[in-house]
Every structure is written in structure tokens, then in C-alpha cells.
Amino acid sequence: MVKLMGEVERRIREEIAQRAKLRADNLLPPLDVEAEVVLEMALARRRTYDEEEAKHEADWRRIWTEVYAECRAARNDPGWPHSSGGHTMAYRIARQRFRGFLEQKGVPHVPFAVRNAVVYGSNKPQTRKAPR
User: Fold this and answer.
1) 47 and 3, same structural domain?
2) CA distances from 50 to 65, 91, 105 (A)
3) Residue 16 neighbours by CB distance under 10 Å
4) 80 φ, ψ to 5°?
5) For the chain, what is the domain count?
6) Does 67 share its domain with 81?
7) Closest CA to 106 of 62, 71, 69, 56
8) What is the pLDDT of residues 2-17, one digit of tens each?
9) How far apart (Å, rounded) are the C-alpha atoms in residues 69 and 97?
10) CA pair distance 15, 123, nearest whole angstrom
11) Measured between alpha carbons, how far is 100 from 106 in angstroms, rounded to an integer?
């Protein structure tokens, strides 16, 4: 896996170098090469995780069905859920169990990479208000 990621990083760096050269040739602002490498590597790790996750589709369906059955039994309501909140709760529980299942199989969870996170609080960039 480490050797594979080394090869992936090499290809990513080559691609980003080509993109940086194209930008320079066309008088566009330069890329932050290291930030691009970090993002692309995170996306590559996530794609690998998603591929591993897809191999266990039957296990996901089994866990999902078990969670629904448990929630319905706990509420003594065979028609549960009656709202999107119930579906969301069951989904979150099932995802946690599925991640635990995958970790037992040796597949550690990889969070999804976000390029442009929304900034809140004191680090939020100042914006100009429109005149009235």
C-alpha cells in the first residue's frame, strides 16, 4: 500500500507540475503545489477507501437491516421511521457500525477531503456590505 501511494504521489506531482506550467504559460496565478498535492493525495486515499467499502455492499445492507430492525423493536413500531429524522438517525448508527466492521477487517476509515472549507468565527474573511 505504501509503495502504491508513492507511485500515486509521483503521478499526482507530475500532473500538478503540468497544470502549474499551463497556468504560468497563460499568465494565470500560480498554484499552491503542496496544497494541491495534499488534496489530491487525500482524494486518492478516499477513492481507495470507497473501493474497499464497495466490496462489502452485502455487509452494509445486512447492518442497515439490523439497525432498522433494532430501532423498530425498541419502539414497538413496525412502521418506524415516520420522518426523515428517523431515517437519518438509523443511517448514522448503521454507518458507525459499518465503519467499525471495516476497521475489524483492516480497512481504516478515511475522512473525505474538503478543498474549500467554510470558515466561521474570527478567521472569517471580511466582506464588504452592499450600500443602501
Assistant:
1) yes
2) 21, 17, 14
3) 19
4) -65, 145
5) 2
6) yes
7) 56
8) 455 688 899 999 999 9
9) 14
10) 32
11) 10
- Cell 420522518, residue? 83
Q: Is residue 131 part of a domain?
A: no
Q: Report helix, strand and coil shares of the chain as percent, to nearest 5.
A: 65, 0, 35
Enter the pTM of the model: 0.70
Query: Any idea how long the chain is?
Result: 132
In a domain, 128, yes or no: no
- Report the distance separating Cα 26 and Cα 20, nearest Å: 10
- pLDDT 10s digits, 56-90: 999 999 999 999 999 999 999 988 988 999 999 99
* Number of neighbouring beta carbons within 10 Å of residue 110: 17
Contacts (Cβ under 8 Å, ≥6 apart) of 8: 41, 44
Same domain, 38 and 19: yes
Grid cell of 47 as nine digits: 477513492
Confidence of residue 31 (pLDDT cuts 50, 70, 90): confident
Domain span holding position 5: 1-55
